[in-house]
Specification:
The complex is a heterodimer of chains A (86) and B (279). Chain A has three helices and six strands, in the order ββββαβααβ. Chain A is of the alpha+beta class. The termini of chain A are close together. The relative contact order of chain A is 0.26. Chain B folds into two domains: 89 residues, no CATH class; 169 residues, Phosphoenolpyruvate Carboxykinase, domain 3 (Alpha-Beta Complex), CATH 3.90.228.20. Chain B is built from seven helices and 14 strands. The longest helix of chain B is centred in the middle third of the chain and has 20 residues. Chain B is globular, with a radius of gyration of 21 Å. The chains are: A alpha+beta (86), B alpha+beta (279). Chain A: Keywords: Coiled coil.
């Protein structure tokens, strides 16, 4: 699956935290989700995303990079922050 | 090709009542930084106009002569059965609020909040809360000491100036919770808004009837405050860089406090002292 971020009405970073306003809805991003948003200006395969995130954050504890990335991507899709191109 | 109709335009002379409806029953209001003309129509338009003139006394606009400003917003309010007056007043208040909010979308940062202002300095306390959680009750109490700005919607310009919306206070009837009475701030003895109110402090109200007489306060980080307040905004995404504008306001007037309480009377003195400290 490939994903790309949806253009936001605004993006705010304060004290290391990120907030987005997408389609009139405010969404608070975790550090991982903010990194995913940053890396998806263009359509990108989730597998590639997982590799890039692992290179940045290291391997997650108790999970695989692919599982952790997939979970975060699912949440971002659910909140309308990302769109997918199956 | 331009075609000019030669058909005569039928006209008729309005009856005295119709003339009265068309001319005398227009209320010109100035609120939330906009002019608004409310045309009262229907068999009991005079009853409606009279009641609105009393309850909207703080928003009546004197200027404009026979015509209001060219950029005035417009709204019709209809009453046939005088027995439906309270219902129509409530409904008209809601429609006026919606119309004003739509008229300021993209201009003002608008919060679902009540506000009062120091009568001399204009320093203002803004209390953000969802409907039904005590904004009106608190406005009624604090408005005895400070200038009443609104119990419903606070419109804030990018320099922190508040455009007052001193509407009637909408008070739920105990015996008919679906119905609210629209009470004039003059009738309740509330102090008038000062000339230039500015945001001095923002709090988030969190009413919990289980708390009894205790009051809990918590300072919120900018991001926590933003997410507490953002749900109580109107037309936020119409603004330029909306999250930045909201965060800048929260920082400038911060720290934002979350105040948990049961009854408005328990926090009246605390909030008064808070505002006095910023004046």
């Amino acid at each position: 699956m490939r994903v790309q971020r949806v253009p936001a009405d605004d993006l705010l970073v304060r004290d290391g935290e990120t907030a987005l306003l997408v389609d009139g809805m405010a969404v608070r991003l975790s550090e991982l989700s903010a990194a995913i948003y940053d890396l998806t200006e263009e359509m990108v395969e989730v597998e590639r995303l997982a590799r890039e995130l692992e290179a940045h954050f290291g391997a997650p504890e108790g999970s695989t990079s692919m599982d952790a990335t997939g979970h975060a991507v699912t949440e971002l899709l659910r909140h309308g922050v990302l769109r997918s191109d199956p | 090709m331009l075609t000019i109709s030669t058909m005569p335009i039928r006209t008729r002379t309005p009856s005295t009542r119709e003339t009265s409806n068309l001319v005398s029953h227009i209320l010109r209001l100035r609120a939330l930084g906009r002019h608004l003309e409310v045309r009262c129509i229907g068999d009991s338009a005079d009853v409606l106009a009279s009641a609105m003139t009393a309850s909207w006394s703080r928003c009546l606009s004197n200027g404009g002569g026979d015509c209001g400003p060219s950029d005035a917003l417009h709204l019709d309010a209809h009453l046939d059965d005088p027995g439906r007056l309270a219902h129509q007043l409530m409904r008209t208040t809601q429609e006026i609020t919606r119309t004003l909010i739509a008229g300021q979308a993209g201009r003002l940062l608008m919060l679902h909040a009540g506000a009062v202002s120091h009568p001399e300095t204009g320093a203002s306390l803004v209390y953000v809360a969802p409907g039904g959680t005590g904004k009106t009750t608190l406005s009624r109490l604090l408005g005895q000491r400070f200038g009443y700005l609104t119990d419903e919607t606070v419109g804030i310009a990018d320099d922190g100036a508040i455009h007052p919306y001193p509407k009637p206070l909408s008070v739920r009837r105990p015996d008919a919770p679906h119905l609210k009475d629209e009470l004039s701030p003059d009738g309740l003895g509330l102090l008038p808004a000062p000339i230039a109110p500015q945001v001095a402090r923002i709090i988030v109200l969190d009413r919990d009837p289980e708390l009894g007489t205790s009051v809990e306060t918590e300072e919120l980080s900018v991001m926590d405050a933003l997410f507490a307040v953002v749900e109580q905004t109107s037309s936020l995404s119409w603004l330029d860089r909306p999250l930045h504008r909201l965060a800048d306001l929260l920082e400038a007037s911060g720290p934002v406090l979350r105040v948990r309480y049961a009854e408005a009377s328990e926090i009246e003195d605390y909030l008064s002292a808070l505002l006095a400290g910023r004046s």
